[in-house]
Specification:
mainly beta
């Protein structure tokens, strides 16, 4: 059974930083591309960042480029999202995704102005 468990969310002031983690189990983690998505209240879920199975290639939404960094540790079956210079508009539930099928339960990030 595949499980993805996110952590690291919380309340932070604008300009602050958070690091999200997503630990996967029940699959061969190193074979999959990984991604982070987010969903703000009243809005659709949107793409944030992705990293290839090898870790060589990353892509970011324009809204987070230069502020967020996605990384992975295959030995720990973990994908990270380092978020810096946070803005109130980054407030959302953040979800990790493994491949195109498996989703975590989400972790809340709230940025106060």
């Amino acid at each position: 059974q595949v499980q993805l468990v996110e952590s690291g969310g919380g309340l932070v002031q604008a300009g602050g930083s958070l690091r999200l983690s997503c630990v996967a189990s029940g699959l061969t983690f190193s074979l999959y591309d990984l991604g982070w998505f987010r969903q703000a209240p009243g809005k659709e879920r949107e793409f944030v960042a992705t990293i290839s199975w090898s870790g060589d290639t990353t892509y970011y939404a324009d809204s987070v480029k230069g502020r967020f960094t996605i990384s992975r540790d295959n030995a720990k079956n973990t994908v990270y999202l380092e978020m810096n210079s946070l803005k109130p508009e980054d407030t959302a539930v953040y979800y990790c995704r493994v491949g195109s099928v498996y989703w975590g339960q989400g972790t809340q990030v709230t940025v106060s102005s």
